[in-house]
Amino acid sequence: MVSDVSRSDGSLLVMRLLIISGMPHHRRDGVVVGWGPTVHEIDHLTEIFEEVRHVGLLHPGEAPTSALPYRSPRVTFIPAPPAGGNRLAEIARGASVVMTVLQLSVMASRAISRKRRGGVAAGEPGGQSKAPTPRDVGAHAASRTPSDH
Which of 33, 49, 146, 149 is deepest in the core (most CB within 10 A)? Predict the structure, then answer.
């Protein structure tokens, strides 16, 4: 159970955690699965944090038998494409993915800060802010060349 933490002004402090890792994930029967021991650890972090977001690599193909699904509904997996390698084009793609993940984390942090202050994200009706998705960032990053990063 998540314990409430109050600030000196009496308002409630909600703790959120963003994990950015290279842990491989796969889909098994439409459900995202990751390496079992780490998935268990991340599930247990929801006893401390109200929300846990995990940016990890989503690989195509069959999942290993050691892969398990997240059990906590408070864990959100944010997929990133696997990237990197030995050739220049592969390295450039890997760098682009890293920049996209960093941009995503900055955008999410700003959205959370705006929401805490009661602000409205640009272009969103009714003042409801939402965390950016990889598609939001990917569309922006795809329109840029490697020299723009």
Answer: 33
